[in-house]
Amino acid sequence: MDLKTYINECKKHWRWFAATLTATLIAAILFLLMFAPRYERSATVLIKDENGGGGLLSSMSASMGMLAGMAGINIASNVSNEMEIMSSPALVMEVVNQLNLDTRYETYDGLMKHELWEETLPVKLTFPKLTDKDGAYMKMDLREDGTFTLYKMRKNKDKQSGEIEGKVNTVSQTPIGPVSVMATKHFQQIMATKKNMTIRIIKEKKYDQVERCMKQMDIALSDDQTSIIHIGYRDQIAERAETIISTLIKVYQEAWMNDKMNAADVSNLFINERIKDIEQELSGLDKDIAQFRGNNLMPDYEEAAKMFMANASLTYEQQVKVNNQLYMMEQMRNQVNHAEGTNQVLPANLLPDNENVAKQINEYNKLQLQRNQMAENSSDNNPLVKDLDAQLGSMRKAIVNSLDHGVAQLKASQKAVNREDQKLKQQISAAPSAVTKVLPAERQHKIIEALYIYLLEKREENSLTQVYNSQNLRIVSPPMGQLKPVFPKKGVTLLVALLLGLLLPAIYEYLKQSIKSMLNEA
């Protein structure tokens, strides 16, 4: 079959082309008339680096990566973790609850179904007796005077018969339970224009609505080289899409703040307990020294012992430093051992001179919070939760090993300092016996007092860190988007209809002529 013959045959059947083209264009027009346009809105946020905070353990975060790699622990990047948290069903559920997205209101404008929201919504309905697992449907004929009729009611899949008359701002008893119908602030303006409205009310199951929202949501990393996250959402109502994105960011920030507050509270509790113990010990030493001086009428011996104290000043400083570090390291080791199986975060910001352990505990707390949130959304038997428990166990062992190594090193340093201290005691032993008896108590008092002041400073530092680290993200671009809908595109739809209207009969004619030529040759 040559091209000229094919073209002539197509001309003979021009009515086919006209009919098909008319049908596809009509179908395209009906499609555009039936499907409401959908808009896309997006925002971008910058996730800040959490390692810059000035707490007690934050200074130890630099060496965590090396030890985590040695332990075989795979820790996701901070940005990836925050993306997973931001897109979690728990946060989306909170957005649905705050905006009441599980109840939708629809009305028809010709063939097109429109959703009502804010300025276009005259009333809002609530269903006090329905649970999160219940769904409902009904129609409402709403009139300008505030009266309405509810009919075609359905709870889950069970249809309910009958019609219910009522008035706005009241509670109506219906076959599916009490229904509260409250007028919005736009009621008068809308009904003055519409006079009467027929509204379809759909009460979705909460979990179905969460899944519906997650399908319309897109959260992705803007670039592999940045920590900027792109948050997109598609919706029939552009303003609602913007509100959903803004609410998601707000809910995420509130959840992050709660996690930070919990971790800070654990650290403060740990410090306060240590301070309380030291205060009791200092009080006992103060009483012993005061009683000894009173009984012995001890004069001021500072000038007599100035030469020895000058030579021993360096020893005192080293002794204070080693005792502080050893005390905090042993207390932290006890805390880590007691934390096994409790699914609680560990105290942070307590060992400023050991950056290796700091980062381990920082990453452990992040993974622990992620595990707790996943367990709340599912259960402790979830395979992902058990996998995280295994990772947490490995991390605890790595932390305990690091703390044991640090304690061993500090004890060795303590022995060396104590040997130097013994030399000082031998020199001081030549002083009057009264001085010799009271000096160890005073020295111990100074050491414990230095530790006491150190803990007070760290408590204040932890409080300041908690204030300054009030946010972990910055909004780079607020929710916005183009005024044109992303679906359906009128030009593309009509063009596709036009092409189909021309191609379908052309293909049919081509196949028909090809088969005819093959039969003639045979």
Q: What can you tell me about this protein's structure?
A:
59% of the residues lie in helices and 17% in strands. It is built from 13 helices and 14 strands. The strands form 3 sheets. Strands 2, 3, 5, 6, 7, 8 and 11 form a 7-stranded antiparallel sheet that branches. Strands 12-13-1-14 form a 4-stranded antiparallel sheet. It is elongated and about 125 Å long. By secondary structure, it is α+β, with helices and mostly antiparallel strands. Strand 2 and strand 3 form a beta hairpin.
Distance between the termini: 14 Å
Shape: elongated
Oligomer: single chain
Mean pLDDT: 80
Q: How much β-strand is present in the residues?
A: 15-25%
- The SSE string, one letter per element, is HHEHHHEEEEEEEEEHEHEEHHHHHEH
Helix content: 55-70%
> What structural category arises from helix and sheet content?
alpha+beta
Number of strands: 14
Overall radius of gyration: 37 Å
What summary fits the major beta sheet?
Answer: 7 strands, antiparallel
Low-confidence stretches: 52-76
Tally of separate helices: 13
GO molecular function, one term: protein tyrosine kinase activity
Subcellular location: Cell membrane
Transmembrane segments: 16-36, 492-511
Keywords: Cell membrane, Membrane, Transmembrane, Transmembrane helix
Summed up:
It is a multi-pass membrane protein. This protein has 13 helices and 14 strands.
Secondary-structure blueprint of this entry?
Elements: H1 3-12, H2 14-34, E1 39-47, H3 64-70, H4 78-86, H5 89-99, E2 103-109, E3 112-115, E4 123-126, E5 136-143, E6 147-155, E7 158-160, E8 164-167, E9 170-174, E10 177-183, H6 187-194, E11 196-203, H7 206-216, E12 217-221, E13 228-235, H8 238-296, H9 306-338, H10 355-377, H11 383-428, H12 433-468, E14 473-480, H13 490-521
Antiparallel strand pairs: 1-13, 1-14, 2-3, 2-11, 4-10, 5-6, 5-11, 6-7, 6-8, 9-10, 12-13
Helix pairs in contact: 2-13, 3-10, 5-7, 5-8, 8-12, 9-11, 9-12, 10-11
